[in-house]
What does this fold into?
Amino acid sequence: MAKKTIVIVESPAKAKSISKFLGRNYKVKASMGHVRDLPKSQFGVDVEHDFNPKYITIRGKGDIIKELKAAVKKSDRVLLAADPDREGEAIAWHLQKILGIDEKTPCRIEFNEVTKSAVQRAVKQPRLIDQDLVNAQQARRILDRLVGYNLSPLLWRKVKKGLSAGRVQSVAVRMIVDREEEINVFVPEEYWSLTAKLNKPGQSTFEAKLNKHKNKKIEIKSKEQMDQVLNELKGKDFVVDAITRKEKYRHPAPPFTTSSLQQEAYRKLNFTARKTMVVAQQLYEGLEIGEEGHTGLVTYIRTDSKRVSETAMSEAKDLIAERFGPAYVPKKVKQAGEKGNKDNKVQDAHEAIRPTYVHLDPVSIKKYLTNDQYKLYKLIWSRFVASQMAPAVLDTTALDIKAGNYNFRANGSIIKFPGFMQVYIEEQDDEQKDEEGVLPELAQGEKLNLKDLIAKQHFTQPPPRYTDASLVKALEEQGIGRPSTYAPIVETIQKRGYVVRENKQLYPTELGVIIVDLLKNHFPDIINVEFTAEMEEKLDKIEEGGIDWVDVLRKFYTPFSETLKTAEEAIGKVEIEDEVTDEICDQCGKNLVIKFGRYGKFLACPGFPDCRFTKPLLEPTGVQCPRCQGDVVLRRSKKGRKFYGCSNYPKCDFVSWDQPVKEKCPQCNSYMVQKNARNKETYIKCSDNNCGYRINGNSVGEKSKEDKHVADLQTNQPLVEEAAVSPNSYSGGNN
It folds into this structure.
């Protein structure tokens, strides 16, 4: 009689995908993520006895565990198939403990993709639970508990109730606060640029930029200097001095890692890091794809590897040759870590993120996917296929043009062979490719017509504020967090009210600044980027079996506990005085005060908790409502997004995502709004898209795409860092 095997995964979707690959002697069940964790209501760590954790069954998981135990009793073998990372190993270990599976029994299987070959291969190769992986996850979990459940109560006592401090998130907030300080102290410096519009008789105009004076780099710092340059150029001939032609190869970007996927999905699709991971998880676990059935569409989505399996490379090669021709197949694709490849710090536990079946192109399965699933799958599929294609070949031309003692430079290029660009161009490349135009055929010594000289005043800009994408990139570069933690970090610091997102940029709140300053002064290690990065490296070494996890915790906690005692005595009560306004509470008559909640400032009654009245804080813009001549004020949606509405609401229902300006459109008399261009400059455009009038941009009358609001999705996340905290009592008012 054949043996009965139960396979346990985390989610029903993954269970459904795997079931179709296994025979009738296999039963696949879902644990719905973690089944045990540290208790929320207690510290749960015995620091006196080697940091022994107290694990309890997660509330609501009783019925699931009961069902799993019953299934195990009817089976001859149990295989634990949680995700192939630390978190998945910990889930498998907890299941092993709670289901009474002998620790000497090989019961752990893993696969990087939910495909028939990968799953069938995995069930034939069960192994023991990797205790080093488990210990690395336990160490992270307990570290977060040690910090969160000790620092947060300190903040309650010293600042105000409801605050929290986490080990990694606090460092992310510091990075945002430090960037804001850089911006605040930045002193802009003036500089000027000069562009010559030139042409060859009978041909189109091209641009050349001033770059040298007497063969030395020139910097123009004032209008007086620019006027002098313009005077010296009067009457001068513009002559082609040198022509440099080169054949340039442009290589494709590698397949996605977790970090690069989050960054590119943010830039191209306007997805938050959290939303990217939610949709990517759906693609990984599997969807119903017509005759294919329930199919996992992408490989494992939490990875920092750019490696691709030989099988996947071969399948991609066949597809490229069939669809685009042999010329588009490179002689060789360099793998991450190979000699000559600058990315040699790769962890080979997983592959890069790629489609599991490259023949399932996005268009062929679009009807089976939601709009978000299709967009993200297309992004992953295109990036992977392009990464396996031949480089693009460009013919580039650089013109050096003399005018008296001054030199102008014009660059141009044409695509000789598109290569991978047939399929995919990285977002930053989209911006770069517009910088170079096509130049006319010219000869050395040829004289050009000067059509115009355009002098522009500029000012140096402060470093940009972080966006979701640039923060994830910075966290990765600094060694803060790991692939599974980037999205929870970005989400958590906003949920706690320490950071707000406005116009895609992350700003620290007043509360965030106060907490960072307090931690800097009294817990410099906790808020230190290098210290946190070193701790991540130690967790990696625990995973590799190189160091003892208890020893790491002990070396951290001994000085940390001493610092806690010192801080308790040294920190006085931090008073955050509320700003009193002239507005009166509708319920008790007190003057309302300005509070700062998760989504910014709002008005609240100082009589809380006896009086819980709140209302939005309306910030005037100085612009009249185009409908009723009331005041246009800044408001916030329930999700915290800024919008503009009439102060006479609900009598007047005028709203706009973009900030209205005082000027009326000279073409149709509609109201005008301020917009942000891709190059971060602002421009003014007509609110009527049928008109399209635009000023301060590239050209008048140019049409522009409207911003699209993307709602946040809710999903289960890995267990991440702790903070003994309840939400802020004030939620942000009735906005």
User: Anything to note?
Assistant: Residues 131-158 form the longest helix (28 residues). DSSP finds 18 helices and 30 strands in the chain.
